[in-house]
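Postdoc handover notes: sequence design on the structure in folder B. Input tokens:
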């Protein structure tokens, strides 16, 4: 089982610039900030759902992992918290720069079976996992995945869709107002401003609640 997905969440959007159309497609779109965004049950990296919030310069990503495809039996929660800054819009696109600085990342096991498995693996170098108790794993090596240290910044992008897009190429359909983040690959891993993602991930789609 993969316990941690990539930190930082390819939908190919036709970048519609305000400067070349008389119709403002961005009118009435929700803001990234304020309120919660929800990702419904997904099987892209295991069965998971997520709720994220951005408000007042602070963000939280809450990811719930499940044992079943309907996301009915919750096994674990991962919470990432930190601060953020919104930057410029990428030229000729709908993609906006977003810098997230990590404060803490915790994992909470929610079943006895997961507690046993984590302890047997000394997951993240911890062998004292306890049911319904969140452990701070910031800066730890978790089965080969190095969790960033507190203060590390991830240089991301986001976009709020201005039009509906059908599913294609294995990517999810998106509706006007849906939120997506950058697509992370080896040359655009978000570790520096120059390695900021330059396309969007269609595997994680959020809708404002």
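Designed sequence:
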């Amino acid at each position: 089982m993969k316990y941690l997905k990539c930190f930082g969440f390819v939908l190919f959007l036709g970048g519609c610039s305000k400067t070349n159309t008389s119709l403002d497609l961005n009118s009435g779109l929700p803001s990234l900030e304020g309120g919660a965004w929800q990702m419904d049950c997904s099987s892209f990296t295991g069965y998971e759902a997520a709720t994220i919030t951005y408000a007042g310069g602070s963000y939280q990503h809450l990811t719930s992992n499940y044992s079943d495809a309907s996301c009915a039996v919750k096994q674990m929660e991962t919470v990432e918290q930190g601060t953020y800054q919104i930057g410029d819009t990428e030229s000729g696109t709908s993609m906006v720069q977003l810098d997230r600085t990590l404060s803490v990342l915790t994992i909470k096991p929610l079943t006895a079976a997961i507690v046993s498995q984590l302890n047997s693996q000394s997951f993240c170098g911890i062998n004292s996992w306890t049911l319904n108790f969140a452990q701070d794993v910031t800066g730890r090596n978790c089965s080969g995945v190095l969790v960033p240290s507190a203060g590390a910044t991830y240089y991301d992008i986001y976009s709020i869709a201005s039009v509906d897009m059908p599913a294609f190429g294995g990517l999810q359909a998106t509706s006007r107002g849906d939120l997506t983040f950058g697509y992370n690959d080896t040359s655009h891993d978000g570790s520096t401003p120059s390695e900021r993602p330059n396309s969007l991930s269609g595997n994680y789609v959020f809708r404002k609640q």
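Context for whoever picks this up: The radius of gyration is 18 Å. Don't rerun without checking with the PI first.
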